[in-house]
Amino acid sequence: MVRLDGVGLRYNNGPLVLEDLNFALAPGAFRWLLGPSGAGKTSLLRLLTLSVRPTTGRLSLLGVPIEQARRRDLPPLRRQIGMVFQDFRLLPHLSAFDNVALPLRLAGRPEGQLRVDVGEMLRWVGLMRRAEARPAELSGGEQQRVAIARAVIGRPALLLADEPTGNLDDAQAIRLMQLLAELNRLGTTVVVATHNDSLVARHPGRALRLHEGRLTEEAAVSVTGLATPGRRATDRIA
Amino acid sequence: MASLRPRGSDDLGLRRALSDRLLPLLVAAMVFLAALAMAGAIAAAGLAAHWRGGAASLLTVQVPQPEGRAEAVALVLAHTPGLTTRRLDAAEVADLLRPWLGQDAARLSLNLPAVFEVRTDPVTGPPAAQFDAALERAAPGTLVERNGAWFARLVALAGSLQACAALAVVLVACVGAAVVAVAARAGLAARRDAIEIVHGLGATHGMIASRFAGRVTLLAFLGALLGVAMAVPVLLGLASLTAPFQAQTLAAPAQDDPGSLFAALPPLLWELLPALPVSAALIGWVTTQITVRTWLARLP
């Protein structure tokens, strides 16, 4: 599903922001992505969304070796990857409905079928009444829910989230984690970057921990939120 | 190809990024200039053909003190094979001299020369020296003015004008393409975030480029229609001014007769004018596709 062998990343001619990353995620795996600010979490997520290509090493996503992939192979691959951005990245001129519908339209889904699915998804995130509102008319939490709906509506094989609960209240955060757990149970590989220790503590699972661009450990995280290297833990989220 | 939104919608916000004001007006100005240049090229080609075909073989024969002598010259002209001759009457001679002698040349009691307009056949017409000698024998002092050399120069001038007009059309097309490229790049800069988002969601380069190209093609086409609409009245006005000089080939337009208005411009120009919006749309589409795809090539 996801495999990194000696992967490094630098922007332009700057220093390496990611260095010698080695790990693999099986289909249906769950990982927290932890580390202090500047550790390289967002850069790793950008690699996994194919927003950038590795400077060194080999990256394989959904079974496709990226360094060998032709340019035209990448769009279908990207459609199988859902991403919840920290800054939402919604299209400001489109309504909430059209933002959520975007991945399905890109995939060529018929309009009639699409409307049902988008309506259902907006209902699930509690935004059915705000379907025609544009992002500027929505609160931060509502925008984040639109971003989440857009990320998951295409049933992606790989779902990545950068601080997905940052603008949500507790109830919404719990519902989001339930959704992520359900998608994970259905076979979606999920990686969630967060600083929220209490969230991690409530949902123990394995974690990738970054420090200064290097993977310091891949460990299970207990209910106390502390990493316990070497401990065998389930590959799915609790 | 999948569309990002239902037909007619504005996926990438291009209605604001590629305004329906500036680009169509610039394209309209380009097409206006192209239409004028095309009309100039066609007119120059027509004049060159006219001069090449007939006027170059025209001679003017002047007989000073024509009493008794003009008839002798007329006799020579009539009996020389390969000539078509016409003697200008007194009114026509007065017309020719009006710029120098004014309206009332007849009152000056001047002894005006007899003037013959002679058209020579390039094959059967007489050699110049032999012809001049025959006229000199008939009426000493007779002047023969050959227009061929002047018309050869005029034909060369018309050819140069035609080439310049064609070059102007090409330059206008290049400037139009540059204007479209600048507009497309401005649109890309304005919608950079939106493009990166849809690119990240799996939009192909072809999808994104086609959205830009569709918008630019529409604006270029509408702008070109406006340019043609602006050019036609100007061309008709110019045609009415030049009609007296082209009386043999074109009719002067009459304001109340649409058929006459249509006939005032060369048929080739009427055929080419509708091609301008199509050409502008094509240039817009191709230029935008190249510009957007080149820009997108920087994305991973």
Compile the SSE list and pairings.
The complex is a heterodimer of chains A (238) and B (300).
Chain A: E1 2-10, E2 16-25, E3 30-34, H1 41-48, E4 56-61, E5 64-65, H2 74-78, E6 81-84, H3 96-106, H4 111-124, H5 140-152, E7 158-162, H6 170-185, E8 189-193, H7 197-202, E9 206-211, E10 214-221, E11 227-228
Parallel strand pairs in A: 3-8, 3-9, 6-7, 7-8
Antiparallel strand pairs in A: 1-2, 1-4, 4-5, 9-10, 10-11
Chain B: H1 14-17, H2 22-53, E1 58-63, H3 69-79, E2 83-87, H4 90-101, E3 114-120, H5 128-138, E4 143-146, H6 148-190, H7 192-200, H8 205-242, H9 258-263, H10 267-272, H11 275-296
Helix pairs in contact in B: 2-6, 2-8, 6-11, 8-11
Short description:
The complex is a heterodimer of chains A (238) and B (300). Chain A is an alpha/beta fold and 238 residues long.
Order of helices and strands of chain B: HHEHEHEHEHHHHHH
Tell me the strand percentage band of chain B. Answer: 5-15%
Tell me the Rg of chain B in angstroms: 30 Å
Looking at how many chains there are and whether they match, the oligomeric state comes to heterodimer
